Amino acid sequence: MPRTREIAGRTVGEAHPTYVIAEIGINHNGSLDIAKRLIAVAKAIGCDAVKFQKRNPEKCVPADQRDQMRETPWGYISYMEYRHRVELGEDDFRQIDQYCREHNIAWFVSCWDTDSVDFIRAFRTPCIKIPSACLTDRELLEHYRSTAVPLILSTGMSTLDQIDAAVSILGTERLLLAHCTSTYPCMNEELNLRMIPRLRELYPCPVGYSGHEVGLAPSLAAVALGACFVERHITLDRAMWGSDQAASVEPVGMGRLIKDIRTIEAAFGDGIKRVYESERKAASRLRVRDTL
User: In angstroms, rounded to a whole number, what is the distance separating the alpha carbons of residues 65 and 80?
Assistant: First the structure.
């Protein structure tokens, strides 16, 4: 089985350019204007897709957390009210869909419950992301499998046995795996990037990297280790309010990441040993004897 998948007309997988996903997530803080600004930035700096999150708070917020109070830009409110505040609705996503079409950039969503999967399917997004937090939810995984679109499964906070079980439910025909560590931000010592080639050995599907570290170097190392797609959270300003902002990348940094990924890809070559024309002058000057 080829280790490639088609997403919005792009082939994602081995021997193809790294697919770069700008994870907007909830960094819009419930603002459609901020969401659109992030989409425009992502397109301008060369990202291939943007990703949002969608959940039904009534299903996804544990009962013991609903009434917990917290400081937010909307005042001192309950966690449940906060979760509703950062959710984008149907009209918001219709505008996002139109805006992404106008800017010629793909968009898709991480869905945290069956209602959200059904909600997003109506927009015919080119794929759907399965959050790490949902990897052990059998009912939700089975619902995901029924969508008949490419699925990106994030593997944070999961054992290999749990990943095996999830993959057995989802199948590998439309699956892409994302190695990640679900800490925001994540320490370099816990990124465990060597899991990227390990996942490639274990599963016959494209493997990428979803990074939550501070800085760019680990994401570049992930590409060097074989990640065929890279997802990083994007923000207008890391100092903005929000739980994911500190683990996000600002526009200048995201642009640098993409530029460096393309440099690494150009340096990969094809693995066929040859003597380049640029080396021949050096050989004529430096090789005293050539008797082989």
Answer: 8
**Quick count: other Cβ atoms within 10 Å of Cβ 236?**
16
Q: What is the mean pLDDT of the chain?
A: 95
Assigned architecture for domain 4-286: Alpha-Beta Barrel (3.20)
pLDDT in tens, 116-130: 999 999 999 999 999
Residue 49 has pLDDT above 80, yes or no: yes
CB atoms within 10 A of CB 102: 11
Residue carrying structure tokens 């499998």: 145
pLDDT in tens, 71-116: 998 999 999 999 999 999 999 999 999 999 999 999 999 999 999 9
Q: Report yes or no: 259 and 47 within 8 Å, Cβ to Cβ.
A: no
CA distances from 38 to 73, 196, 243 (A): 19, 28, 17
Interstrand relation of 75-78 and 69-72 (parallel, antiparallel or unpaired): antiparallel
Annotated domain spans of the chain: 4-286
Instruction: Show Cβ contacts of residue 178 under 8 Å, excluding neighbours closer than 6 positions.
Output: 129, 152, 153, 154, 155, 207, 208, 209, 210, 229, 231
Nearest Cα neighbor of 155 from 221, 205, 199 is 199
